[in-house]
Amino acid sequence: MERLAVAKVNLGLSLLGRRPDGYHELHTLFAALTFGDRLYLEPIPQGIEFRGRYGKRNLAYRAAALYLERAGFPGGVRIVLEKALPEGAGLGGGSSDAAQVLLGLKELYPAEVDLFALALSLGADVPFFLLGGGAEARGIGERLRPLALPPLPVVVFAPGLRLPTPRVYGEVKPHDFAPELPVEEILGALARGEEPPYWNSLEGPAFRLYPELKEVKARLRGLGLKGVLMTGSGSAFFGLAESEEHAEAVVKALRHRGFVRKGILGGPHVPSGNGAFPL
Ligand SMILES: C[C@](O)(CO)[C@H](O)COP(=O)(O)OP(=O)(O)OC[C@H]1O[C@@H](n2ccc(N)nc2=O)[C@H](O)[C@@H]1O
Ligand SMILES: Nc1ncnc2c1ncn2[C@@H]1O[C@H](COP(=O)(O)OP(=O)(O)OP(=O)(O)O)[C@@H](O)[C@H]1O
After folding, report:
1. ipTM for the assembly
2. Which family does the entry's similarity section mention (predicted)?
3. For ligand 1, atom 23, which residue shows the shortest CA distance?
4. H helices then E strands: how many in the chain?
5. What are the percentages of helix, strand and coil residues in the chain, rounded to 5?
6. Of 73, 121, 168, 279, whose CB has the highest number of CB atoms within 10 Å?
7. Are residues 91 and 181 in the same domain?
8. Active-site residue set
9. Do 83 and 40 belong together in one domain?
10. pLDDT digits (tens, 9 = 90+) for 79-107
């Protein structure tokens, strides 16, 4: 079985405050894209054979171990992971891989397992990838409301700087907190091809850690992209192109400067039979 583990961008990410458990309360709009990693899963009598980096620490491996244990070890799986997404870029690569392993194993070995709970235990971004498409998220990212997004051409650029998520969150200061995102205004602007009124509260901490990221943002704006924003905890940025041709021209201009890909917002929807997602 072959599965595509797509990337995500955050169409705005507002940090509302710090929670007692040390995590941050956030309000964000997730948008899956149309490119990502590839995973090949096939059943084997027992155990987990994994081909990919980090061995048992890989999120894909950990997702398989968790599912098989909760499903009562119905069999085993061979997983081959072909990475295409840069790591530590804020594109949700590892989280997306983990979600696709959970969905794939549920197809191979159907069982009464709460995929949502397993996903959340693997990471804050994993539950969204059980849904795909677009979603408004609250909490640490586990309270999801599906959203219909307009299929817009997007360019993603990662300047080859690994930004560990805990490090960026660790740099958050009280003045980085902000109000809730104006969701309806953002969706309206996206639909009209205007500059969306969104922000990413993690840009402050990330730019304090790596000031050169400001130039990256300015360069993408200089290439005519709208709504240029860092995604997740960075270091990747995305911007909205006027057209596929514009997106292609931007990709050519950035080709030798890091990871650059064009895609379409709103990506593949996953059949929603994965339980309720309380917002
Ligand atoms: C930045 C985002 O990608 C936005 O989508 C997510 O908030 C982070 O999702 P993620 O990479 O799956 O994050 P996790 O692996 O769950 O958490 C990594 C670390 O980030 C910090 N963290 C994460 C999410 C959150 N709402 N508040 C936090 O403070 C915590 O220190 C946590 O230990
Ligand atoms: N399957 C995987 N793909 C990529 N990184 C993985 C994977 N499994 C574990 N990791 C580890 O997790 C770290 C974060 O991976 P990931 O690519 O999800 O970061 P990210 O793109 O910033 O995601 P997010 O948007 O959730 O912050 C990597 O730096 C790597 O050490």
Report:
1. 0.93
2. Belongs to the GHMP kinase family. IspE subfamily.
3. 23
4. 9, 10
5. 35, 30, 35
6. 168
7. no
8. 8, 125
9. yes
10. 999 999 999 999 999 999 999 999 999 99
